[in-house]
């Protein structure tokens, strides 16, 4: 089968057919379908989330189980009876068709990605990179992150003085985390704009139901990203530095601890995840604080609240909407029978608004005492490797922005990203002064 034909068959099986089935199920009242449809194009999902909450702690949908319950979410994500993995290749005619026609590319939802592997492979890979993201290591990066934020904000001074509109996502929220993670992975400054563009192009690969041309665009971005990564690794082999990727290359070349696909998968995931989610955190934070001037005023009067404010931003508008796990055996979860091999979708954004855990969960409160109880970084062995880095960048980036431009005024034209899984803003126009 020709590559174009294979690609078209795969798109039909992996995206178009599920999209049609989900939309049909949503029209017939399936709550998972309604949630997926509501989130299409970056739409708001809160009405659908509350419908799921009213249906009980674990809802059995047409395609998977679904929960917005905080306790069940933690049980699924941290429990030993569930494993990570993609639900779409679990056997059967459709799964076999997808396996035969899938593009030969590294994919964030396919092994050897850290997102879907399990011990012992997951443990070995995680240990190789975790030392860069310890609390102490992140604290050492704080001063450099403050310098980067200051330089980026300096770059906005001309537009601010002229009263010109600025897109804060493109001019600040995206540039801060991509610069930080690029320095961690040894990416030269001249190549960072390309990495940023490729990362944004790859991000929808976490979704399903992509239109044909979007699928083709995402596939091309994944192929270009892998090609760039192969070249970057080759360059670092010739001229190794002190960065994380140089260390991983050394481990690969010296003791064979990683094969080449594992090396590229780890590097690609750390690089893309290292800025894609933090872009969302910064954009969501600016939008929330701009829309709640009384909360911003509290932070100005009590700057010690900033770390907690970042947790509250993560709680009420998380960078990742949902994630899922597959049951490894027949289970009873809160009185609901979950057969082995079932897919359970945990809606992180819904669990973060569970009224049993968070008083007045719809209220944005930068002084909320238990904001850190959110599950925005997942839980268990797949707890976000870069959580400490994201928290630090969120605090440094947001505080620096509002300290420098306290009277920033949002302008019409703000637009959500079209992704379903990743939640953030693609445009945040503002006038600075």
Automatic annotation (TrEMBL):
Keywords: Heme, Iron, Metal-binding, Monooxygenase, Oxidoreductase. The keyword Cytoplasm does not apply. CDD domains: CYP164-like (cd20625). GO terms for molecular function: cholest-4-en-3-one 26-monooxygenase activity; heme binding; iron ion binding; steroid hydroxylase activity. It holds the Pfam family p450. GO terms for biological process: cholesterol catabolic process. Transmembrane segments: none annotated. InterPro entries: Cyt_P450, Cyt_P450_B, Cyt_P450_CS, Cyt_P450_sf. Belongs to the cytochrome P450 family. This is Cytochrome.
């Amino acid at each position: 089968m020709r590559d174009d034909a294979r690609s078209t068959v795969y798109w039909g099986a992996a995206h178009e057919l599920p999209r049609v089935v989900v939309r049909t199920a949503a029209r017939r009242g399936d709550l998972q379908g309604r949630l997926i449809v509501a989130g299409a194009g970056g739409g708001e999902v809160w009405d659908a989330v509350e419908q799921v909450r009213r249906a009980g702690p674990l809802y059995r949908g047409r395609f998977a189980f679904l929960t917005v319950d905080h306790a069940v979410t933690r049980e699924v994500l941290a429990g030993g009876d569930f494993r990570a993995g993609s639900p779409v290749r679990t056997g059967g005619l459709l799964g076999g068709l997808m396996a035969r026609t899938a593009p030969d590319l590294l994919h964030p939802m396919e092994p050897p990605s850290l997102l879907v592997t399990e011990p012992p492979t997951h443990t070995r890979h995680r240990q190789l990179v975790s030392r860069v993201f310890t609390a102490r290591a992140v604290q050492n990066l704080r001063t450099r992150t403050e310098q980067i934020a200051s330089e980026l904000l300096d770059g906005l001074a001309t537009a601010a003085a002229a009263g010109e509109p600025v897109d804060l996502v493109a001019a600040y929220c995206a540039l801060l985390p991509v610069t930080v993670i690029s320095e961690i992975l040894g990416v030269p400054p001249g190549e960072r704009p390309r990495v940023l563009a490729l990362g944004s192009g790859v991000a929808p690969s976490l979704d399903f139901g992509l239109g044909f041309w979007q699928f083709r665009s995402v596939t091309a971005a994944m192929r270009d990203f892998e090609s760039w990564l192969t070249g970057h690794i080759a360059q670092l082999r010739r001229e190794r530095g002190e960065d994380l990727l140089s260390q991983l290359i050394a481990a690969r070349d010296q003791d064979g601890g990683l094969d080449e696909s594992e090396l590229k998968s780890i590097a690609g995931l750390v690089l893309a995840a290292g800025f894609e989610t933090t872009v969302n955190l910064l954009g969501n934070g600016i939008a929330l604080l701009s829309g709640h001037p009384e909360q911003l005023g509290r932070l100005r009067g009590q700057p010690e609240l900033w770390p907690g404010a970042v947790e509250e931003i993560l709680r009420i508008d998380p960078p990742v909407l949902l994630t899922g796990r597959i049951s490894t055996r027949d289970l009873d979860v809160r009185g609901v029978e979950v057969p082995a091999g079932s897919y359970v979708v945990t809606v992180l954004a819904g669990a973060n608004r569970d009224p049993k855990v968070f008083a007045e969960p719809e209220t944005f409160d930068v002084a909320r005492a238990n904001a850190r109880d959110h599950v925005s970084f997942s839980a268990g062995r797949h707890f976000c490797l870069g959580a400490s880095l994201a928290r630090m960048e969120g605090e440094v980036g947001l505080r620096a922005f509002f300290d420098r431009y306290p009277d920033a005024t949002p302008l019409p034209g703000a637009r959500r990203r079209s992704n379903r899984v990743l939640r953030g803003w693609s445009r945040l126009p503002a006038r600075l002064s």
